[in-house]
Amino acid sequence: GAVVSQHPSRVICKSGTSVKIECRSLDFQATTMFWYRQFPKQSLMLMATSNEGSKATYEQGVEKDKFLINHASLTLSTLTVTSAHPEDSSFYICSAARQRNQPQHFGDGTRLSIL
Amino acid sequence: KNEVEQSPQNLTAQEGEFITINCSYSVGISALHWLQQHPGGGIVSLFMLSSGKKKHGRLIATINIQEKHSSLHITASHPRDSAVYICAAEDSSGSARQLTFGSGTQLTVLP
Known about the structure:
The structure holds 2 protein chains of 2 kinds.
Chain A: E1 4-7, E2 10-13, E3 19-25, E4 32-38, E5 45-51, E6 57-58, E7 67-73, E8 76-81, E9 90-97, E10 105-106, E11 110-114
Parallel strand pairs in A: 2-11
Antiparallel strand pairs in A: 1-3, 3-8, 4-5, 4-9, 5-6, 7-8, 9-10, 9-11
Chain B: E1 4-7, E2 10-14, E3 19-25, E4 31-37, E5 43-49, E6 52-56, E7 59-64, E8 69-74, E9 83-91, E10 98-101, E11 105-110
Parallel strand pairs in B: 2-11
Antiparallel strand pairs in B: 1-3, 3-8, 4-5, 4-9, 6-7, 7-8, 9-10, 9-11
């Protein structure tokens, strides 16, 4: 159990495009989802914490207008990178937890390349 | 904010060798996670521990709370164990469990 699906796995698009990434918990309901970014050879960095039905909490330095997060249901959270630029190219990965105080289960990640 | 350090950064071993990856953190935590990241990027959670020792197959994780140190051991290593191993310190003092990640250890097991 505890499967998290992330889609798409890879995106290549032109600068200025907005890109939506979906994170779904397939066999459990997730009240909390986390979005991370990982640059090459670096560790995962938390971008934001998303709670179902409420606004996401963004980490310092992460632009909330640039990275729109929606957690409209207990099984789906979306991250939209608006007007993406080459510097937004990175590996984005989500995780989901049944409750705030329970373990996180990770998706397979989305590799975003902005040309 | 917690500082999480892993060593070594890179490790190459021959098949069958016993492997140890170390993780230290600077601030008290509620739990320590060991994760495995495959070349494609997907992450699998291996262990979550807050004290003592856990074992799953050929993998063993230990933690010493007083010394703020954890180790991941792989016995009888195999080429399929090749991956990046990441430790993450969990702080649940806030409203949600947050993880601070180490920089990872790239393990390559040669046949």
